[in-house]
Design goal:
The protein is α+β, with helices and mostly antiparallel strands. The chain has 25 helices and 20 strands.
């Protein structure tokens, strides 16, 4: 009677315990959290997203040596028991009694898996935990095959240093894929299991080596490896991971992608940090590394220029310190600036650290090929991505929208305006006024639109807005090209008074590059789940924003900037000779320096400036000095490694080339001197129709 009651009590107790354990349905749906990976277009890993670092691997990819060493050390009867090893339990009890301890474990691999799968079982060494573990293990054995159990175990077990699963451990400890591990490396990983922190080959290589050799010895004794293979493995030193790529590459792009994913994760029903997603991006790692090298070289030079100016100009230094609000003397600031290992304190970085951003786009599809959102050095890197978050005054980089608006209104590259001082309204009511000047203080007479853009003459740009088009028309042009920031439709728009985002202005220039077809910039091409199934594919929004003919005309004027204007150092100094067009830009205070330009294959925008817009980069830090060198070196480097065909933009219908006289900008007459004859392109319906009135007869050359 007592035995019956005891038996019934045990059954009831087990039923109560079992109620808290996972159901059959839960077991079948088990999916361990795994690492999501952001991948470049050329197959390079950019960043991993995870809570627990775990890469899922199929059992077929796991080396036999790893399975054999695991079975030898953790569960020699794995293939014979039904989740619980009676022999193991008896052996553990005998050893624990003999040693008066509880050090000897009796858990099978299946029981260990039960603990790894369900935290409701717990990890504290108690009888209750053992019973829960045992019951769940039996249920697991009924639910899965031995191969599936082994796969689940290898993907869930902890190996230390934040790595869960054998694939993550192989990458972290040896920099290898699981399939490439040697016998010794397999033994090292299995040796970690009892105490990953104690036997870490990174922190305790001596202990790890002893442990590895023990695993090899036991595996050899079990008959899984031959005498020769065992001897060879013992002779090899402990494997070490070799550092390869520079850490932090494309860190701003990776953060940009993560934030883009967080905008759509609920819609897609995905968890970025648990689902083991593969996020395929547009970034080209080779182009990214070229851009980073050019950016670092340029920003180092710009930083040196600023430091030198601070050391020479006490007033500027005092002003910057006052702006920072940081209690530091001018002498202390000078010591920092003179230091060989320049490290600018966090409190001074807005005023003393030169910052920048750069974006490379494929104009044909909007793909972001490379991105830099700020300083790349570990000590300076932050989460503020200036390529997509900073709103900065564009200066003359905004001018192509002004000239395009004029061309659309049937004005010509040869339309002339006076290069003379003028008054600009800074607000709609014109209560606040300003007298702008050209960057070099020059003035002149009648000047063509082509020369106005080529030489970046502020006075000509302002007159375009005052005399040929309206600020509202210019604003609409910029909107059509994807500029989303606030744009004030006032005359000062001619000088880039309203802020823009580097990525947006680069995408706008890419549309000029792409014959008037705007492709919204994208960084993600598709998302796959852990099984390779496509969750979603992405493509850019594509639309025609302007007629190809008027775009060709503007682009040709922008080529003049590179060939003979403010960007001509691209040709003579940096020796980049491919077809190219672009525009320099500098704000009046020189707190912002730009160069945005493109070739038939690539569009690139570069901004350099201070996070505090009240601080100047330097008295002579124009866009052509501070930003253009980064663009030129990066573009030249890209063309040295990429086999782009030597193509040029094709001239579309609607464009005609006319021989004109540069004295009148009308069609040449038979009496126009040879050195006055030039060729210019026009929209077909806006071409010159008159014959040069200046040289209309044989005696015109003798006129005073």
């Amino acid at each position: 009677m007592v035995l019956t009651a005891l038996f019934i009590s045990v059954i009831i107790y087990l039923i109560i315990i079992a109620a808290d354990l996972p159901s059959l349905a839960e077991l079948q749906q088990f999916n361990p959290d795994s690492v999501s990976k952001i991948m470049s277009a050329d197959g390079k890993l950019i960043k991993e997203l995870y809570i627990y670092k775990r890469d899922i691997v199929r059992i077929g990819a796991v080396p036999k040596d790893l399975i054999n060493t695991l079975i030898s050390m953790e569960d020699r009867d794995f293939y014979n028991h039904a989740g619980v090893s009676i022999k193991g339990i008896v052996r553990a009890i005998l050893i624990d009694v003999a040693t008066l301890s509880t050090r000897q474990g009796a858990s099978t691999i299946t029981q260990q898996l039960a603990r790894n799968m369900y935290n409701t079982i717990g990890f504290k060494k108690t009888i209750l935990r053992k019973i829960k573990e045992l019951l769940t293990a039996i249920q697991i054995e009924k639910t899965f095959t031995k191969a599936e159990i082994m796969e689940l175990y290898l993907n869930s077990v902890y190996f230390g240093h934040g790595a869960y699963g054998v694939q993550s451990a192989a990458a972290d400890y040896f920099g290898k894929d699981i399939g490439d591990l040697s016998l010794g490396e397999c033994a090292t990983l299995i040796g970690l299991l009892p105490a990953p922190a104690k036997y870490s080959p990174l922190n305790h290589p001596d202990r790890a080596l002893v442990r590895r050799n023990l695993v090899l010895s036991v595996t050899h004794d079990r008959g899984y490896i031959s005498d020769q293979k065992y001897a060879e493995a013992l002779e090899k030193p402990l494997s070490r991971k070799e550092l390869t790529e520079k850490p932090g590459t494309a860190s701003y792009f990776a953060e940009y992608i993560r934030r883009e994913l967080e905008k759509i994760d609920e819609e897609l029903g995905i968890n970025l940090y648990k689902d083991g997603l593969i996020i395929h991006t547009t970034l080209n790692m080779e182009i990214q590394q070229i851009l980073e090298a050019a950016f670092q070289r340029g920003i180092d030079h710009d930083q040196a220029v600023l430091n030198k100016e601070y050391l020479k100009d006490s007033e500027k230094l005092k002003f910057a310190l006052a702006q920072s609000g940081f209690p530091i003397t001018a002498d202390s600031a000078r010591k920092i600036l003179k230091s060989d290992s320049l490290i600018i304190p966090v409190e001074l970085r807005n005023q003393f650290l030169v910052q920048g951003a750069a974006v490379v786009l494929d104009p044909g599809n909007g793909h972001i090929l490379a991105m830099i959102g700020g300083r790349n050095e570990d000590i300076y890197a932050d989460h503020f991505n200036r390529s997509v978050q900073a709103v900065r005054q564009p200066g003359s980089v905004f001018k192509p929208f002004i000239y395009l608006t004029a061309l659309e209104n049937h004005y010509k590259p040869t339309t002339q305006l006076m290069n003379q001082p003028i008054q600009v309204c800074l607000d709609a009511a014109c209560k606040d006024k300003w007298n702008p000047s050209n960057h070099d203080g020059s003035t002149g007479g009648l000047t063509t639109l082509r020369d106005g853009l080529r030489r970046s003459l502020n006075l000509i740009s302002v007159r375009v807005v005052q005399e040929l088009v309206t600020p509202q028309q210019v604003k609409q042009t910029a909107r059509d090209f994807g500029i989303s920031t606030r744009l004030d439709a006032v005359e000062a728009i001619a000088l880039g008074s309203s802020g823009v985002i580097p990525l947006e202005v680069t995408a706008a220039y890419a549309a000029i590059d792409n014959n008037g077809i705007y492709n919204s910039p994208i960084g993600i091409t598709r998302i796959e789940d852990r099984y390779g199934r496509v969750v979603r594919e992405f493509s850019p929004e594509s639309r025609e924003v302007r007629d190809e003919a008027v775009i060709y005309l503007l682009r040709d004027m922008m080529r003049s900037v590179v060939d003979a204007g403010t960007g001509q150092s691209i040709r003579w100094k940096y020796k980049f000779n491919r077809p190219a067009a672009g525009k320099t830009g500098t704000t009046n205070s020189k707190a912002d320096a730009w160069f945005v330009g493109f070739t038939p294959q690539i569009a690139m925008g570069v901004w350099v400036g201070m996070d505090d817009p009240a601080i100047s980069l330097g008295k002579k830090q124009y866009g052509s000095q501070a930003a253009l060198p980064i663009w030129a070196r990066a573009m030249k480097g890209i063309y040295e490694v990429k086999e782009y065909p030597p193509t040029d933009w094709e001239r579309p219908a609607g464009i005609v080339e006319v021989e004109i006289c540069k004295d009148s900008y009308e069609k040449v007459s038979q009496w126009c001197p040879r050195d006055s004859r030039i060729r210019e392109i026009f929209l077909t319906d806006a071409q010159p129709k008159k014959i040069c009135p200046i040289h209309s007869n044989p005696f015109s050359r003798f006129k005073d």
